[in-house]
Amino acid sequence: MTVPLVLATFLVFIVLDYFLNRRKAMHTVPVQALQAVPARFGGDYVDGFQVPEHVSYHPGHSWLVRERKNVLRVGADEFAAALLGKVEKIELPKPGQWIRQGQKVVSFYRDGRKTEMVSPTEGEVMEINAEVIANPAALRADPYGKGWLMAVHVPDEENTGRNLVPKALVREWMREAAERLYSRQPALAGAMAADGGRPAEDLLAALPEADWTEVTGEFFLTA
Fold it and tell me: What pLDDT, in 10s, does the model give residues 78-135?
């Protein structure tokens, strides 16, 4: 009787252990799934600024992405859009105009002041974004989407790419830009923290004494 009793006891323990572990596993699966979701500021974010990996960046904080062979779409990155804030007017080159990489081609106006941005590529302007001209707020609201600036026909894509920020260095480049901004204007770091780590809609508005044209020109390489 002893052996069957021992075997029966072990069987009861095995069955209980199976159901207890199964129940525990059912409760832990959702937790594991939540942990697998990327953090809000991981991946495409650097110090709170969105930096999509699928686009290329010029050191002057403009971006470009290949739409098809020899056609690139151009815009301003979120760091630039946050510095620009509530611009009232955007001027773009006309379709058919030839622009050169590093040339001042985009103008932004605010409170009677003007700042400029250089082109990240060389080629012929094919199209400009009429929506962002009519509604400059789109630049800040969606810099990589509806806030794009223009499409450019680029005959020599390879040569243009040599003067862009290397893909492997993009995150460090953006981090350095944010640190340089905060070291220059420490109060801006507080403005970021107040908004949960994301840049304020109008970053420089937090400092009325800041020279908007000077600060933007420094980072846009047009000062």
Answer: 999 999 999 999 999 999 999 999 999 999 999 999 999 999 999 999 999 999 999 9
pTM: 0.78
Helices 170-184 and 212-220: crossing angle, nearest 10°? 160
110-124 b/e with 16+ CB inside 10 Å = b? beeeebbbbbbbbbe
Same domain (yes/no): 212, 112? yes
Total count of residues recorded for the chain:
223
Residues 176 and 57: their CA atoms lie apart, in Å, by 14
- Token pair of 18 as six digits: 């199976």
Q: Is 120 in the same domain as 206? A: yes
- 157 & 67 share domain: yes
Asked if residue 174 lies in contact with residue 79, where contact means CB atoms within 8 angstroms, the answer is yes
Q: Label the pairing between strands 150-153 and 98-99.
A: unpaired
Tell me: do 5 and 76 sit in the same domain: no
* Residues 185 and 144 grouped into a single domain: yes
Instruction: Tell me: do 31 and 81 sit in the same domain.
Output: no
What residues contact 133, with CB distance under 8 A and at least 6 apart?
90, 92
151-184: per-residue pLDDT in tens? 999 999 998 888 999 999 999 999 999 999 988 7
Residue of 105, 91, 99 lying closest to 60 (CA atoms): 105
Q: In angstroms, rounded to a whole number, what is the distance separating the alpha carbons of residues 56 and 64?
A: 5
Q: Domain range for residue 94?
A: 46-220
Q: Are residue 70 and residue 170 in the same domain, yes or no? A: yes
